[in-house]
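Blinded run. Sample ID left blank on purpose so nobody reads anything into the name before looking at the predicted structure. Input follows.
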Amino acid sequence: MWETKVFEIREKMKESFWDLPLEKLNEKPSEEEWSIAQIVLHLAGAEKRFLTLALESADNHSNSSENNPVDLSVFDDPSRKLKAPIEPSSDFQRKEDLAHALEESRSYTLRFLELYTKKGLDKRSMHHHRFGEMPIWQVLELLGKHEQRHIIQIEEVKRRIM
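Blinded prediction complete.
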């Protein structure tokens, strides 16, 4: 299910900001908050980190005696603030830069899906800094829920800066 859903979510995310003028893409609602461009860079960086971890774990044949899915409901509540481990650049971003970052990060997901299947990764796990041991295949749910959460954030930023 998440194998196809992540592509639908990515399209919604791109549609949520693509028609905005550059100035608005780079405008922060406040000094402490991210611009839409920073959110997009964060999403691209997170996808790259999540899928690099999944690919390395799959390549290393990381097995787990307990391969229970982790609870990702933390992403379902946008009012619950989470601290990102890496702060995205606040440099002015062009749409081409954002598109390139998203294409590059998506190549990791495509590689993962070309190399592995859910059945092939059954009983295999990876370690995530926030969630601990999790089934490798659940990385797609993690990616999708993470982007869904930030689509809501993008819409909130748009409401505040427009």
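Unblinding after everyone has recorded impressions. Strands lie at 125-128, 132-135.
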